[in-house]
Amino acid sequence: MITLAVNGQTLSTELPPETPLLWVLRDGLGLTGTKYGCGVAACGACTVLVEGEAVRSCQLPVGEVNGAVTTIEGLAGAEGLHPLQKAWVAEQVAQCGYCQSGQIMQAAGLLMANPQPSDAEILEAMDGNLCRCGAYPRILAAIKAASAAMAG
Amino acid sequence: MGRAGKIARRSFLIGSAALVGGVAFGWYQYRKELPNPLQGQGLGALTPYVLIDASGVTVIAPRAEMGQGTHTTLAALVAEELDLDWSAVRVLHGPPAQAYYNGSLLREGVPFAPLDQGWLAETARDAMDVPARFLGLQVTGGSTSIPDGFEKMRLAGAVARLALIRAAARRSGLVEADLRTEGGRVLLPDGASLSYAELAVEAAAVELPDPPELRPSNAWKLLGKSLPRTDMAAKSDGSARYACDVRLPGMVFATVRRNPAPGAALLRFDAKEALAFPGGRDVLPLENGFAAVAESSWAAMQALDLVQVEWAAPDVAVDEALIAADLRAALDGAPEATAREQGEISAPEFEAEYSVPHQAHATMEPMGAAAWLQDGRLQLWAGTQFPTMALAEAAKAAGVAPDAVEFHTEFMGGGFGRRAEMDFIRQAASLAKALSPVPVLLSWSREEDMAQDMYRPAAMARVRASVADGAVSQFHLATAAGSIIESLAGRFGFPALGPDSSILQGAGEQPYDFPNYLVTGHRAETRVPLGFWRSVGNSQNAFFHDCALDELAHLAGVDPLLFRMRQMTHLPSIQVLEAAAEISNWGATAPGRAKGVGFCYSFGVPVAEVVEVEDTPQGIRLTGAWIAADPGIALDPSIIEAQLSGGMVFGLSAAMQGAITFAQGRVEQSNFWDYEPMRMRQCPPITVKILQSGGEIRGIGEPGTPPAAPALANAIFALTGKRIRHLPLNREVRFA
């Protein structure tokens, strides 16, 4: 049995340690906000934070997770939605919405490391996250809005 | 108002028993009332769109949400007439029901150009309502949800409102004329008010009034404005549920593999190693393949790879050479249909051949569904564009009667036409049968999704044309593709009669009036599974038709945008080109950059797109994009902007770098590394201008896609002098 810190809770799974974190979250723990898109780290739909860093959970065996995991379900804090989530709603970013958990978590990792990114830094950080609906312009706008809001 | 009026009379449902016993009454009521189109007048059945219970008002959206925002706008149509508080509106996808047939879908299937609004064309279109109803075509596609719902949904709201007023009048003893409605309540003259929920039981009992006049657009409070989408919060906090997110007690997880040569059989397999994989549970045969079932989706995918398998060879080892030869043979042969014929074509000075490859849908959510067969009843959860058919197919595959199926239409992680198909529905139902009473979640791998698509056909065209006095003097477009309808008919068991109009879609109905103008469609051999891909035939024919015009403009020595405008006969089309020129600052481009324009009239919507490109040391970079479009009436500008720009990105992705290729009967691409949609750094800023000529209202999910490829190819010509007539463009140029 493997024990994990996920969204501030201690959870455990019977799934084998080589199972990627993505599938432990989705199939073992019922945290289905994190999505499967490609299984080869080419689309970013499975992005979560481990110790504040954005990682592709489809590539990370659960047995090798060292640190606290944050998924889209745990991004909101005691004071409500994360500024990125608020910006996502304000900018009306999502279309089909399937990639958006990964987009938001990737952006959350970016803003933790770099609270005031330039456009070029945002594009670079987000380039691994595919959106088939083509919501990119609004994703960019929302990240900039969230960054500005967090700077207060 | 005739036909739609009859619909509305029956379209008001109040779940009165819901107040005491949940929503069961409402659901039971419309199950019971499935219409028999042979009986009664009009629809002869209740078609409910409004459900009121103790917790408030729920709008039943008869179309599926795949990202296009249709739930929001369909709900706004009801809310506008029913005076609902937008923040309190809830939306549910209705159950599969014939009552939710899509009358607009077949309207465009009649053999008249969309521009033809003459008596005969309109009569023929109206007549298509009948087969749509008979077939129970509850379909989301063809950019039809809003045209189909524009009147129906408003009438449903208006009739519901009158019934609530009538109930309030009875309760209060006041006359109806003294009562008003606002924010989900009936307001009495003394300042008191009654909520719709508390009036619901009485309203359900009143005789439904005749459909009222609908409110004029200048009185709209919700329509015409950008509303917060009803699905946005759930899609920003991870709680939006897609089929792959359904979890049930004791659920097992499955994944499938079919013969990578589409349509070829499975000969034999050995599951010994797969079953020994930790967490592996079953390996089950399916049509042309097998499924692995395990304790997690990942274990199922691992186990699947351990199955020793022998596949049958395909009857024909399709490859790119054969596909090209088929298309050339079709163009050399007689046309299947002629979309346009005036004057004659002789001794053209310009001749060119164009081609496009197959395309995959590659929705972000791979195909999948959840299914549970228990005590002879099947429950199925899927994102589908075609719920009535999905229910029937699921019943067949599970071996139960259709009325033993409860079907749940979930959010779709992208559709683009792929989720109108039935393969994954049948697989999930078959698995539920084999595993009953254990519930199962079927999730395809990305690789399976790429290899087992129903692809946008490869297509090829020849253009023969001349210019004189700065204008086109003759223009012959011959366009060839395999037949989507033939492919689909084979899969669905429908007869495929007559020519396939999708081959000519977008080729014959462009709003030009060249003196000599011939457009012919040629059906090529259909050897691989073909399907509807966002904008369908328009996606290739806009590239052929519009790129050829761009070349002719160059030949004539006329600005390409003016060249198109001057020869157009349709004012809204001229106006979108003017608007695109204005917002893109067409005449003024920075040094080192160049602009190209693309135009297509599709689904009744004229769309002009401009792309600006720059040559950089890393390759060609897209520095700007502009879209002008006219859907007749714009109900939600924010959603329209998102659909147009998203549609353009979809078209640009395919034009730049999208190609599905075949070798030895198999698709060569397997994942996003070799079929790579546009990424964020490649995406230019996109500016959208929405025009409203006030004509018939049109859907906007697809028209943004077709002009993208010609706009980019024409921009690359303007920048480099290189005419690229064969997609994808990255075979000829490098993109940054």
From TrEMBL, chain A:
Protein name: (2Fe-2S)-binding protein
Listed InterPro entries: 2Fe-2S-bd (IPR002888), 2Fe-2S-bd_dom_sf (IPR036884), 2Fe-2S_ferredoxin-like_sf (IPR036010), 2Fe-2S_ferredoxin-type (IPR001041), 2Fe2S_fd_BS (IPR006058), Beta-grasp_dom_sf (IPR012675), Diverse_Oxidoreductases (IPR051452)
Keyword Zinc-finger: no
UniProt keyword annotations, A-Z: 2Fe-2S, Iron, Iron-sulfur, Metal-binding, Oxidoreductase
Source organism of this protein record: Pseudogemmobacter lacusdianii
CDD domains: fer2
Domain 2Fe-2S ferredoxin-type as annotated: residue spans: 1-75
Superkingdom of the source species: Bacteria
Xref: SUPFAM superfamilies: 2Fe-2S ferredoxin-like, CO dehydrogenase ISP C-domain like
PANTHER family: BLR6218 PROTEIN (PTHR44379:SF2), OXIDOREDUCTASE WITH IRON-SULFUR SUBUNIT (PTHR44379)
Transit peptide in keyword set: no
Automatic annotation (TrEMBL), chain B:
InterPro entries linked: Ald_Oxase/Xan_DH_a/b, AldOxase/xan_DH_MoCoBD1, AldOxase/xan_DH_MoCoBD2, AldOxase/xan_DH_Mopterin-bd_sf, N-heterocyclic_Hydroxylase, OxRdtase_Mopterin-bd_su_IorB
Membrane-crossing residue ranges in chain numbering: 12-30
Pfam families linked: MoCoBD_1, MoCoBD_2
Xref: SUPFAM superfamilies: Molybdenum cofactor-binding domain (SSF56003)
Record keywords, A-Z: Membrane, Transmembrane, Transmembrane helix
Annotated Aldehyde oxidase/xanthine dehydrogenase a/b hammerhead domain residues: 237-315
Protein name: Molybdopterin-dependent oxidoreductase
Organism name: Pseudogemmobacter lacusdianii
